[in-house]
Amino acid sequence: MDIDRDALVETFLLEAEENLAAAEDAAIALESSPDDEELVQALFRAIHTLKGSAGALGYDTMAAIAHALEDLLDDVRRGHVPVGAGPITIVLEAVDALRATVEGVRATGSDVVTMGATPRGAAPALAARIEDARQQARTQARGQGRGARGEAAPSDRRGSSDAPRALRRSGTVRVAMEKLDEALSTSGEITMALGRLEAHLALTAGGPLEDARQDLERLHRQLLDQVMALRMVPIGPMLRGFVRTVRDVAQIHGKQARLVVEGAEITVDANVIEALREPLTHIVRNALDHGIERPQERRALGKDPAGRILARAHRDAGALVVQIEDDGRGLRRDRLVARARALGLLASPEHASDADLFALVFTPGFSTAEQVTDLSGRGVGMDAVKRAVEALRGTVSLASGEGKGTAVTLRLPVSLALLDGFRVGLDDDVFVLPREAVRECVPLATPLGEGGTELVDVRGRTLPVVRLRALFERGRRSPSPQRQESLVVLDCGGAELGLAVDHLYGEAKTLIAPMNAVLRRARGVAGCTVLGSGRVALLLDVAGLFQEALRLGPARAGA
Amino acid sequence: MTGEEQLLTFLVAGDEYAVSVLHVREVVACGPITRVPSLPPFVEGACNLRGSVVPVVNLAVKLGLPPTPITRWSCLLITRVEVSGEPTLLGVLVEEARRLLDAGAAAIEPPPPFGTRVHPAYLRGFVRDGDRLVMVLDLARVLSTEELLALGATAPILPETT
Predict the structure, then answer these.
(1) Positive or negative CA dihedral for A59, A62, A66, A68?
(2) Residue of B33, B155, B162 with shortest CB distance to A523
(3) Which member of A24, A99, A372, A519 lies 3.0 to 4.6 Å from A377 by CB, making a disulfide possible if both were Cys?
(4) Measured between CA atoms, how close is B121 to chain A, in angstroms?
(5) Which of A383, A389, A364 is CA-nearest to residue A280?
(6) Which has the closest alpha carbon to A452: A556, A301, A323, A378?
């Protein structure tokens, strides 16, 4: 009985979240197209369904808010109340409150919550305010003789019969992320088992067993691709979530702005989407706070008084690229130069290239905002964004034109779990590099010295070179055996770094295993994986290695 | 019989030590260990435990004894610790797993204040087994969270020249 109820509640919560998202989308869209009856219907349906389900499960607070909201929306639908900023704002407030009750049910099992989102009070008060707003709007509308939407709209108030219906969409199932993670890790174990099988079969020559093994391996690779495909979800809903952020924040700060989403259909591993939410929120808030000017200022500049923030996703060479672009004031070079000088960051900032100056924005403690605002002055600057993105094995860059706007570009792997890797070896250990980062491999003509970093000439280009072996020589100076080393030339956001290794094993799709709390503290390591042989291999953090090379490089050349 | 406690004994740097079996989830033969950069010397590396990647602590190094070389008898005691509230599996590398000892709590005698090879803070005491003394380690203290947390927090990836 309890298990049945738990399952029912879980289904209800997922549906409630979906309905609230749909309601929110519709409400925001209504603001720009108030005459779209489809939107009003969608909004009404979402709230109506939620009310029915909440009532059936005995969530009275939720049902009461939804009920008041439904009455208001019914009036809008029938044309008694015009769609304007008034109703939409209270609808959004109610959606927030309903969301808080959903959270409450999830966390404590009760929908009676103190609503952080609506500081003005608890649920009954909110229901009463919605009702007041409805009456007021009705009276006003009557006074103005408005009834444009007509009385004829047939009531499609379906009874509570369409209360919780699980899995309404045929052919679609909802799967918890952990189950997909489990499927992926089982797949990883199969890879290992296949590896063992291969090792045993290598001892006996060929034959039907070997054929069967190859079939098995091919099918397993297919299965792995299918499991990965299951984890891919469109990025659209997450990006559209910012439409609301932009609307609310702009309104509070007396600005006008709208967010436009492009590339909503691009699919990415669900984990990547979750991990992107926070850094993107920060970038969007930055665009609003520091980028978009006030309406009068924009008008004076001949710009549209309403700012435009474009959130665009696309695929490029197997990577996911997400760009947040605003048409605001852009970065001011003179301020960047002044700040760089104050912090002693560049040798001669006034002669630095734009790219070098923009890169400073990602330095901890670097901010040119003249005043700390509650929007972005939260101690998490662009340096935090950079760290978050690098933790996802991605890169972030920024371009800006003074008076024209700023674009922040994130480049990320499509999946956190599966990596196109390039394997290299040191003694018996195997290391994985992201395939994307490997530019070329060249034999190392002259053996390197014993130091950590030095400069090497590769076809006329001078690269800083890190010896992989040096990572493991802390505190000891064991003379490394003279062997043929190879140089892997790595691309670190445009700059090049050489990594000297013993062996080159080539490309391989690599399943990245979750990192243990202890191993996460290891620097220079971005992840780990278990090879077919059962051995653990480390995924190297290219950006981290590069920073180390820079830190040690210039001073060490020739040491 | 609340005093009855089972101890698992093993060899570290040639001496026999013991820990409560309650701290050991399983004992596995030590497979290949992959070196991990920038972690303190007592972290030998990472190994594969049925598909999960588990860090390996060289117990001898942690105790300040000569490091345990990896031989065909090397074993890992798999134990669970909390690191910043996150349950984390660790492999503890020992020279050789020995046997189970039944010991009443009363039979564990307090550690001598000096004269042990291992710092007394890491010891619960010792038990007598015939004419031999077996040191009982306090595994929770040996693998204290603070020390694990301090791991790699400031260590550079590449060594500075000396």
Answers:
(1) positive
(2) B155
(3) A372
(4) 23
(5) A389
(6) A556
Look at strands B52-58 and B15-20 and give their pairing: unpaired
Distance from CA of B56 to the nearest CA of A (A): 10
Q: Which residues of B touch A555 (CB under 8 A)?
A: none
- Whether the CB-CB separation of B41 and B123 falls below 8 Å is answered with no
Task: Label each residue of B16-62 as H, E or C.
Answer: EEEEEHHHCCEEEECCCCECCCCCCCCEEEEEEECCEEEEEEEHHHH
CA angle A300, A302, A306 (to 5 degrees): 90
Mean pLDDT, residues A109-137? 70
Distance CA A437, CA A491 (A): 5
Residue environment code for A324-359, b if the CB has 16+ CB neighbours within 10 A, otherwise e: bbbbbbbbebeebbebbeeeebbeebeebeeeebbb
Residue B149: closest C-alpha in chain A: A518
Q: What backbone phi and psi angles, to 5 degrees, belong to B141?
A: -80, -35
Closest-CA residue to A526 (of A427, A414, A390): A390
Is B37 within 8 Å of A522 when comparing Cβ atoms? yes
Q: Does B89 touch chain A (CB under 8 A)?
A: yes
Q: Model confidence at A430, in pLDDT bands (50, 70, 90)? A: very high
A448: which chain B residues are within 8 Å (Cβ-Cβ)? none
Calculate mean pLDDT across residues A138-158.
51
pLDDT, tens digit (0-9, with 9 covering 90-100), for B33-60: 999 887 888 899 999 988 789 999 999 9
Determine contact: B72 vs chain A, CB below 8 A: no
Q: What gap in Å lies between CA A358 and CA A331, rounded to an integer?
A: 8
Q: Would an 8 Å CB–CB cutoff place B38 in contact with chain A? A: yes
ipTM value, please give it: 0.84
Nearest CB to B38; choose among A185, A466, A523: A523
Of B33, B35, B55, the CB nearest to A472: B35
Distances in Å between the Cα of B132 and the Cα atoms of A264, B15, B17 are 72, 11, 11
The distance of A188 to chain B (nearest Cα, Å) reads: 7
The pLDDT tens digits for A353-391 are 888 888 888 877 776 554 444 444 444 578 888 888 877
- 8 A C-beta contact, residue A65 and residue A101: yes
Does the pLDDT at position A532 exceed 80? no
Alpha helices in chain B (DSSP H): 59-62, 139-142, 145-149
User: Rounded to an integer, what distance in angstroms lies between the CA atom of residue A6 and that of residue A3?
Assistant: 5
Identify whether the C-beta of residue A242 lies closer than 8 Å to the C-beta of residue A311.
yes
Residue A86, by phi and psi: left (phi above 0), alpha (psi -120 to 50) or beta? alpha
Nearest C-alpha of chain A: how many angstroms from B39?
A: 6
Say yes or no for a CB contact (<8 Å) between B159 and A536: no
Q: What are phi and psi of A441, to 5 degrees?
A: -125, 135
What whole-number distance in Å separates Cα of residue B7 and Cα of residue B22? 8
